[in-house]
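Predict the assembly for these two chains.
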Amino acid sequence: KNEVEQSPQNLTAQEGEFITINCSYSVGISALHWLQQHPGGGIVSLFMLSSGKKKHGRLIATINIQEKHSSLHITASHPRDSAVYICAVRRSGGYNKLIFGAGTRLAVHP
Amino acid sequence: NAGVTQTPKFQVLKTGQSMTLQCAQDMNHNSMYWYRQDPGMGLRLIYYSASEGTTDKGEVPNGYNVSRLNKREFSLRLESAAPSQTSVYFCASSESGTANSPLHFGNGTRLTVT
């Protein structure tokens, strides 16, 4: 079993829909990252969080440390949100060596 | 600021050939990393450098070598390429290796080994 599992693997939405991507992990962590990879291939860091909730524009990331679970929400989705969203965790006490999920491929249609 | 710059963007090698992937960052970061990305799998760490002058193996170091040439540059070398090394390679950097250090990624190198 992978230490970081994301669901769903693929997601299709209509423009304007509310989207949720889930990440579950099985190890103790000091931080969790959400990353975005566009079709061109570049990877951008969206959020880094260790507790609670963070919001940036239409994106919201939450984490429940006790349940070892995080969610990424996109409100009022837009075709430009189409990308692969990647969850990654840093183990507690470890160096900055992240464990990555396989990603969720999101397609938002007009 | 250019951020993290990787070259080349694309490369095709024959089995047994060698090549070096170059990476440079202009953010004065201490830590640098090389990852590979394969279909259906998460990014996997090949090698990392916690600071200038140090390098350490990651999850999948076999078949690769690295050099932290100076604080800015961290190169990845394939001495004798194999088809199993066909992948997309990403270089990344962070200010430090601590929990509060976000990663900054390059745009990737798509390598095909035939």
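The first strand of chain B starts at residue 4 and ends at 7. Chain B touches chain A through 28 residues (CB under 8 Å).
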